[in-house]
Every structure is written in C-alpha cells, then in structure tokens.
Amino acid sequence: MDDQRDIAVGLLQFESQLQSAGSAREVAFTAVNESFELLKFDQAVIWKHDLFNRPIVTAASGLSDVGSESPYVQWLSRAIGAFPQSTENVRKVQLSELPEDIVTEGSEWCHEYLAVCTLKGPDGLERGGMLMSWAEPISDTNVAVAEWIARATGYMLWAWRGERQHLWRAFGRRQTLGIAAVLVTLVFALSFIPVQLNALASAEITPQKPIPVTSPLDGVIKEILVQPNQIVKAGEALAVLDDTALRNRYTVAQKGLEIARAESQRAINKAFLDDVSRTELQVLVARVREKSAEVAYLSDLLERLTINAPQGGVAIFSNADEWTGKPVLPGERIMVVADPSLIRVTIYVPPEDAVELESGAEVKIFLNNDPLNPLTGRVTQSSYEALPQPDNTLAYVVQAELIAGHNFPRIGLRGTAKLYAEQVSLGYYLFRKPLAYLRRSVGL
After folding, report:
1. Residue 47's Cα: distance from chain center in Å?
2. What distance in Å separates the CA atoms of residue 199 and residue 421, rounded to the nearest whole number?
3. Structural domains of the chain ordered from first start
4. CA–CA distance, 15 with 25 (Å, rounded to integer)
C-alpha cells in the first residue's frame, strides 16, 4: 500500500509539473525528465510527426536540446518507423525484434526492453509518441504508470495546440478572410514598386598595369632581396638565383678554352715544319672559337642571375621565405612591380549572383579596413564567361575604376563591392533567387 501511495503522490506531482509548463516544448521536456522518479528508466524520448508523417524527436531525457543531425537522433527516427503497429496505448517491444541494421547500430544507445507509448488528446488524435527503455524486463506496474504518464502528456500537448487554434479562431472567419485579402492586395501592389537591382561580391584592389618579374633561366632562388609591398627603383636588384652549378660550368668551360688555345698555339708552332700539324690547325682554331662562345654564353648567364626591377613601383608577391630555395623555370613569374598610383578594382561575382552590367555602371566598394567610408567606381570591363578562381570556384571577373577624388587605397586591400544594374520591380527583386533555386531544384 505504501508503494502504491507513493506512486499516486508522484503521479499527482508529475501532473502538476506538466500543468506548470509554459509551452508544448516545455511539456515534452518535463515529461521525459520528471517521469524518471516514477519509472527509473534508462532513457526516454518524445517525438511528433511532420507533414509527411516522418518522426521528429523533440525531447530526450538528460538533454537540454536535441540536434536533428546527430547520429543518435537519426537512428531513433529510423527505429521509431520500424516499431510494430498496434492499437494499444502502451506496447512492450524488445530491441532484438527490430531489423538487424537498427539492432546493430542501436545497441550502444538503447537497452533491450522498450515501452512505446502513444500520445493522444481528448479528441482521440495521435500527437506523437513516447519511448522508454530499460535494461531489465518491464513490470506490469511500470506499464500502468507509463500509460498514465503518456495520457497526461498527450492531453497537455493537445491543450497547447488547442490554445493556439483558439487564439487564431478568435478573429472569426470573416475577419480572417478580410485581413488575408488586405495583405494579399498590399503585397501585390508593393511588388510593382521599381527598385534598382544590385549584387554583392568580393572585391580586391589590384594594379592597373603590373609588369611581371620572371625567372630568366632554369635555376633555384637563392635569395629575395626585397620585402612584399616594398617600394623599389628601376634597375634595383630584386632576387638572386643560385650560381653554384652555373659557376662550375663556367670554370670548366674556361679551363677547356685554355686547353684549346694551348693546343692551337702548339699546332701553329709546328705547322711550319709539320704537314700534319698544319692540317689539324683549322680544327683546333674552330675548337677555340667554340670554347670561347661557350664561355661568353655562360658569362652572360652569370650576369643574368641577378633579377632587376623593370620599372619603379611596389613589389607585389606573397612571402620572401616561400621563394627561397624554390626551383623555377624560365619565364616563371616570381612577383610583379606596379605603379601604386595606377590601381583598379577587381570584383569576383559568383554565377548565382550575376546581374546584367553595362560599361559605366555604378559600383560601391566597402573595404574591410574602412567599411564606413565606401569608395565609388564605374565598371570598365566584365568577363564574358565565368573563370576558375584559386579556390576552385567559378566567378565572373569585373574590372572597375575609382572615380577621381578618392585617396588611393593600398594595392592588395580586400572588401565587398555592391554592383548596381537595371531597374526592376520589387517582386522580381525579392523572388529572383528563390525562383532560380526552385528551377534548379525541380526543373521548372
């Protein structure tokens, strides 16, 4: 009798806690957590069904929030759909009775003995369900208590849903239709208001006429002599290639030239008396010329190991340390030198945000270092097709020039550009992207 009296008192306290809940979500949270004192289960969850009759877990014991993407919740959704159908309000199920893949995956999250409760309101309609699990077989007392808890929870969930419906119906049918007609008319009228179509895209301050600094020959970078964004003069040394292999070849070529000259001179001295030496003289003279040409060629390459600035300006490259010791090929770009007063804005427009731009269209540039003072520019050029970018995305490349009157921003600064296109209706402006997404998704 004492146990029954304790259970009765606990059920009354549980019902009082449900009545104190301030929302349907709080009702579900209270049901899965406060019922533990009565049933001593290992885990309890509550779910509801969406428009497609798919289970959605709304509360789980011991969790303040239920993440719909977690593996546990995804397994629960599949397990709930696999429970055998029954007209009973509470039915006992064993985990081993479910499909093999659900049993294998759920053994680490759920115990063997389960009680599946149907949550119904006074109208008899199902509001969802409640699942409880134990490691030991379920007693008849627990089944009776679970049925009472499920009935009380279902009534409270129905009460909150009914309250929302009552508030909606308080307006009356005629008032509701009138408000809906006014809203539709207002939206329809506003959709024809003309607005200017615009698009946002990432932007970068780039040089207008950069001159590339390339490697003159095949070699290895020994040292970068300047720092990124350093001002350099025309003819100033920018980088030096490693000369070890080339200088060894030059030394060997000089020795070969000395030997060829010595052999040629010996043949000249013997040519007066020896016909054979006179015959070999022309070959030895040609060899001297060949070695001289090789020495001159290698000497020219040694002079080109130092790479100089083609003009004055700012040296633009990423990092000097990244180039040190790096092998380069002839013509490979190491850096660019640009006039800091000749700049432009390069804008990268994603294909899904592309708008029709004409030459001279207005552009606002909001640099990251000074977003409160936008710069104004005009479009000068736009790429015909989307081009691949370093991050493996596609973008239309738009070039714009700044309007006179602005201070020249530093090359390399980044920000966001707002491109202005033609005038369109507000309805088209608001629904352009949703309609494009719908067409890509369903093919309309």
Report:
1. 33
2. 8
3. 2-169 (3.30.450.40), 211-334 (no CATH), 339-442 (2.40.30.170)
4. 16
CB neighbours of 218 closer than 8 A, spacing ≥ 6? Answer: 327, 328, 329, 330
* 206, 309 contact by CB (below 8 A): no
Side-chain-facing half-sphere of 91: CA atoms under 13 Å: 14
CA dist., res. 315 & res. 328, Å (int): 18
Task: Note the pLDDT tens digit of each residue in 193-221.
Answer: 888 888 888 999 989 888 898 888 888 88
Element (H, E) at 207: strand 194-207
User: Sorting pLDDT into bands at 50, 70 and 90, what band is 279?
Assistant: low
Quote the crossing angle between the two packed helices 2-19 and 24-34, to the nearest 10°: 160
For 65-94, write each residue's pLDDT tens digit: 777 777 788 888 888 888 877 777 888 888
Report the DSSP beta bridge partners of residue 147: none
DSSP helix/strand/coil, 7 = helix
d(CA 244, CA 381): 47
Q: Which amino acid is at 311?
A: Q
CB of 150 within 8 A of CB of 88? no
Distance CA 196, CA 426 (A): 9
Model pTM greater than 0.70? no
For the stretch 192-195, contacts whose Cβ atoms lie closer than 8 Å and that sit 24 or more positions apart, written own/partner, are 192/425, 192/426, 192/427, 193/425, 193/426, 194/423, 194/424, 194/425, 194/426, 195/423, 195/424, 195/425, 195/426, 195/429
- Look at residue 276 and give its three-state secondary structure: helix
Report, in this order, helix, strand and coil percent for the chain, each rounded to 5: 40, 30, 30
